[in-house]
Records
---
Amino acid sequence: MAETLLKIENLTKEYEGQKILDGIHLEVKKGDVLVVVGPSGCGKSTLLRCINALEPIQGGTIKLQGMDIRKGSKNITTLRQKIGMVFQSYELFPHLTVIDNITLAPVKVQKRDKAEVRKEAMELLARVGLADKAKSYPRQLSGGQKQRVAIVRALCMHPEILLFDEVTAALDPEMVREVLDVMLDLAKQGKTMLIVTHEMQFAKAVADKVIFIDQGKIVEEAAPEEFFEHPKTERAKQFLNVFTFEQVEHHVE
Amino acid sequence: MPDLGIDVLFKGTNMLRLLQGLWVAMKISIVSILISMPLGILVGALMTVKNKVVKAIFRVYLEFIRIMPQLVLLFIVYFGSTRALGWNLSGEVASVIVFVLWGTAEMGDLVRGALISIPKHQYESSEALGLSKIQTYLYIIIPQTVRRLIPLSINLITRMIKTTSLVLMIGVVEMLKVAQQIIEANRMSSPNAAFGVFLVVFVLYFFACWPFSVLARVLEKKWN
């Protein structure tokens, strides 16, 4: 049995009196790939932001390897190093080159040897097909390239778990694939990942388990085949119907 | 070639006097810039705090200085405040006071703008990488703010240099005033001198401001 990395118990998040997350229980084991889906505004992005302590929480606990994650707590910078996060809008640092974007935190935060970090960064860049972009600035890259750099930046910190927050949502369709391929590759390497996405085909391919959230609650939790083929709850069925619209229209023709 | 009357500048020490006038203008602007830049950074940083009272105070200050023509400000400080408060101000000191008040307000607004233009996500992605608050400012926020700020503040510097041409109105003998004096003195012998002398003044202002303008463009190109 793999060790439990992340344990969320009864997590409650309120914003201006409104419950965004309401009693979330979640356990992520080492090597798990969990995909979180749900209608927009259901709280799935907020869940990731809470796990990285970017949002204060109002109740419950989030524990990484038994250590409490909470915004403002003293050891939070240490904990965050174990959690890699990739954002929807890439959020590379525009004033730094690709290689500096990647090496900044390992060198300044983890105090690792600069040459060693650089070497690793170059290997990772090569792996995502961007070795020739090391000296470029983010503005010179396409959206898909930026997102791959952002993934490498997170990886270079050697995180225990990677959080992906709708990382393909801002991309042009033809660039989505290159980013998803990188993520599939990471899954194959056995990285622990928590992925929020709207790419249902991708979710089906990559997930060990699908978590369906609606109105701040986990409504369904199942293996991907099970969830996509035989959703148990009415709300999950309704949600999945949104994505099968194309097929419906096809039958009408 | 029409007679532009530039030759009057070669009479006696006229050219030297004109350059001394330029030096007076530069002195007022440089001293004002050196004082108002750091003050402006402080004011700009204060304007981004959450405290409503602090915000309101600086807002009023900024709007007041912005709306007032600089010449009116000069008159208030030089003629108004000396009378009302009974102190003694030289024209140059009054000019520096006005330019510092003005420069600080403008610089403050530029700093505020640059600071709030850094997206919230830059702070977050930095924090998500485990950088502390101080490291986030040091490596992420301040370098980006400075990059946005430098072209803008250089533009402000050239505006401050140019605007010193107003201080002759409160009796400071700077370049433009010297030029007028030279033209006045040679009205009979060289009636066309106004054109030539003001042309030279124009060129001198240009060379005083141009290097800053070039620097701003170079930096902008490098960073954008």
---
Amino acid sequence: LFGMFKSLTSGRVLTAETLAEPMARMREHLANKNVAADIAAEICRSVAQGMVGVRVGGLQSIKALVEENMERALTRILTPISSTDIIRDIAQARTQNRPYTMAFVGVNGVGKSTNLSKVCYWLLQNNKRVLIAACDTFRSGAVEQLRVHVRNLRALSTNQDVEIFERGYGKDSAAIAKDAIAFGAANNFDVVLIDTAGRMQDNEPLMRALAKLVSVNSPDKILFVGEALVGNEAVDQLTKFNQALRDFSGMSKPRHIDGMILTKFDTIDDRVGAALSMTYTTGQPIVFVGTGQTYTDLRKMNVSQVIRALLRA
Amino acid sequence: MVLNELGARINGALQALSRESVIDDKALDALLRDICGALLESDVNVRLVQQLRQNVKKRVNVEELASSANKRKIIQTAVFDELCGLVDPGVEPWKPRKGKQNVIMFVGLQGSGKTTSCTKLAAYYKRKGMKVGLVCADTFRAGAFDQLKQNASRVHIPYYGSYTEADPVQIAREGVDKFKADKFDIIIVDTSGRHKQEAELFAEMVQISQAVQPDNTIFVMDGTIGQAADAQARAFKESVDIGSIIITKMDGHAKGGGAISAVAATSSPIIFIGTGEHMHDLDRFSARPFVSKMLGMGDLSGLVET
Ligand SMILES: Nc1nc2c(ncn2[C@@H]2O[C@H](COP(=O)(O)OP(=O)(O)OP(=O)(O)O)[C@@H](O)[C@H]2O)c(=O)[nH]1
Ligand SMILES: Nc1nc2c(ncn2[C@@H]2O[C@H](COP(=O)(O)OP(=O)(O)OP(=O)(O)O)[C@@H](O)[C@H]2O)c(=O)[nH]1
Ligand SMILES: [Mg+2]
Ligand SMILES: [Mg+2]
């Protein structure tokens, strides 16, 4: 990749000009790793800026120096500022005699319902009682899909601590979520997981409906589910989901996406750029990574592994 | 819709070129930089973008051009042809044969839109007066059969599937046999989502394909896919005989460049694009008119054979 820049450059001071070419290569390298083009450009620009004026030591190559600086920048972007301890937050909600609520949102087919079921499995492992609210009342088979998951999860769990709350198709999803949360509170559930219909970020009626679901129910966590396969669209999706929550909610303190689930991580080899695009765009953490189609295929993100994959030739 | 915004960007770059008083290497490089940047932002495969840049440079020898009166047109034509090459593999798309029973199999990555698109396609052929049946050979995804059933019922298309049989090969064979016996013109087989990293899933796809002997295999790609498109498309192509491509979810903001990369990877044409979740949201696609339209090529089209 940096073949041209292997040459040693001793005792030189880096300028914008000397950095232009290696940075252009880095940009293309990141784009090839599936980082959104704009974001790759922005990160490269800021890394280059930080390197201008640096004196290159005798045996240092610019390539190594660029990678070193890039690694530092990527670590900063990918490392969450706040920790997410959902189990602790659930306990906190319990002290207020209410279930902890999580809404799974995102565009079509990215894995919302499947990864909701994986999160449910993880919660059951942690001895939580979980209610799944079937609030995708639009897509064919969405309710039955969750019913099957609940049946499977009940068979897997010792105490059968999971139930589905459903009202069929065609109904107002915000109202169903509200009833589900009330039902969860009355029946001693620790957590309510809210499945929502997939929607395109430009579809205003559907985005308004999502903002309504959020403002009516104030879920504790709004998790954006995005697939690792997504390219430049990642940026637009996240920006517009946040925009809709802000502009359509009618709340004085509007909500935003609290975190992401990065799905289909098993389908992309080392083109892990979507992880970077998503965290850069939102400043929010990737709470889980989906790595397959079974209940145990849910991981915490390994930041250094992602960075290694991003910089690998 | 697909590529529109990209078309606007490229067109802008071409127009900027028309305003240049001298067209030298520098102007050409600037133009190509703009175009390649736009392609990368649209998720076109990085290698294809590099190739396009080289091909145009190779075709347009600036020095030889110097004397030519229509430098700009030569450059524009080169760019146009290369863009066409991206979306047009130069093969006739498969068409169902009248009086024959045509089996179509759908394959693709998880969640790409297979189940939705196969019902849309079934409805499309039904509107053309053909007798169409749908087979659900996805025994893996929770609720897959219910999904297909509800979709099919909405557009009154007969379907075949099972809640209890776990072997998709078995169901596919049974369903196709049944519809063949009932003299259906078009039999569409929906399969589970899969990816190249899981060899077993690909082996299953090959088995289904062998069992139903499809006349056409349609590869469904999500229009928002990024740089992973090429490797996945290639792997599908190596396992089954992909004849056509459908790109889905083009009703949003996506430009579909990743999915378009699948054309090069599979040498197969895009036949339809999905433009919504409803059963009639399916648009026909044809490459060259599309590129002309996207570039608003009123004056250019005369230059180019179609
Ligand atoms: N390989 C892989 N497949 C996944 C992963 N997560 C989900 N899937 C698959 O992706 C497909 C779509 O998943 P769903 O959970 O139905 O997606 P969704 O976002 O709920 O879809 P809609 O509700 O229709 O918008 C299914 O085939 C899942 O099995 C993952 O981490 N890896
Ligand atoms: N907006 C929009 N949504 C679409 C389009 N095509 C499919 N979808 C949606 O994308 C999601 C996934 O579609 P499916 O048809 O279930 O995808 P699939 O490939 O069968 O998924 P698996 O069987 O799990 O691999 C659903 O929510 C569909 O409604 C489209 O053209 N536009
Ligand atoms: Mg769903
Ligand atoms: Mg399907």
